[in-house]
Each structure stands twice: as C-alpha cells, then as structure tokens.
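Ticket closed. Logging final result for Zinc ribbon domain-containing protein.
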Amino acid sequence: MEAGKKSCPYCAEVIMTEAILCKHCQSDLRQKIRISPGWPRPSERRSDLGSKIVAGIFIAITLYVVFDFYVSNTSENKERTQAREAAERCREEVDSYSGPEVGKNIVADVCRKLEDELRKSLSHSP
Ligand SMILES: [Zn+2]
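Final structure:
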C-alpha cells in the first residue's frame, strides 16, 4: 500500500490516512480514533491537579484569615499562645498536605509569612 493511505474499515477500499469520511462508502472514520472510556484524558488529569492547587490556595487563605482573627480579637495575654497555635496548625497543614508539590509550596510559603508576621506583632507588644 502507498504511504499516507490505508484501507477503509467498512468497505476495504484504499483511502487517505487523514480521511475523516470514506469517499467510497461515506462512512465516518473519526469514530475509529476515539479514546476508549476509562482511559484518563490529559485534560481531566490537569483539572484534577488544578483542583488540588486550588485546595492548597484555599487552605492558605483560610490560615491567613484565622491568623488575622487571632491577632485582632485576642487580648495581649492570650495573643502569644494563640498566635503560636495558629503557626503550629499551619505547619501541621503542610505536613498533612497530600497534593502536588506546587500546592504544598504555596501553603509552606504562607506559613513562613505567617511566622514572620507573628514575630513582628510580638516585638510590637513587649
Ligand atoms: Zn469505505
């Protein structure tokens, strides 16, 4: 058989490899190249990864909000312990995070910033 040609699966006539419609029997040849169900498509895997990253960012935002709450709503006596608890919870969140490395890095980065803020806020109140 010549290069770039194949035989039609329906009528066995020789047709072009790129043909999407057989010129002999008018059969739709695109159906032959469909991905079988159950095979994970690249787009699905990408969206799964994306949702995990979104989950990581969501955790990071939640931790920020929680930290702000601790700082603005606690008395000076309680501030140190509760802010430290927030930072510890943040580190636990990083340890238990099972998503992709990029999401974990986002949470870990927020934890570092959180601890920086913590140090700063504690130095303001002797
Ligand atoms: Zn055909």
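The chain has two domains: 1-34, 42-124. No further action required.
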